[in-house]
Amino acid sequence: MQLNQESAQRRLTDMNMGDMPVLEIRPVPTRVDSDWFVKYKKLCHEFMLSLTDSIQELAFMNLTQDEFMALISGHSMPQNTSIRFRIPLVWGGALSTDNLFMCWTFPQSQRLDKFILEQSGAQTVWLPNPTQKVYISAHDTAGGDGGNATADRLSQMAAQIAASRGME
Predict the structure, then answer these.
(1) What does the pLDDT look like over 93-108, one tens digit per residue?
(2) I need a surface site. Which of 81, 88, 118, 149 has the fewest CB within 10 A?
(3) Is 0.70 topped by the overall pTM?
(4) How many Å apart are CA 30 and CA 9, to the nearest integer?
């Protein structure tokens, strides 16, 4: 299905992600190196380490302290979270942290997959392109049980980690 920017935004609104910006691309099939997955896993680790600047968004995910620490220290992703490419490698996307974002697997990642697949065969494709590294739908930003205290606690922990890494 060929969408224009307005119809793409309307479709995302129907999926409760009307705040998701989109990027217009013309898919050009691109050869992907056979070792892409090894590089991707390393890139995911780097991406997780870079999330110390995304504390506000992470606070809305209502992660436990253990999940939060495992995430920003690059050890493991919390359950039901995904790291996605902004532009898929097969369409010319780069293996770069700038080409990644994180979101909930259910429902956001699954809805985004459906949104992209619905455009199969189109000359122009509208891809999800959130402004931040972590996408939390405005539909889901009611916050967690921790309120501001959660954000403050996570901010303090992230500042300590950044200081220990010399990233102040």
Answers:
(1) 999 999 999 999 999 9
(2) 149
(3) yes
(4) 27
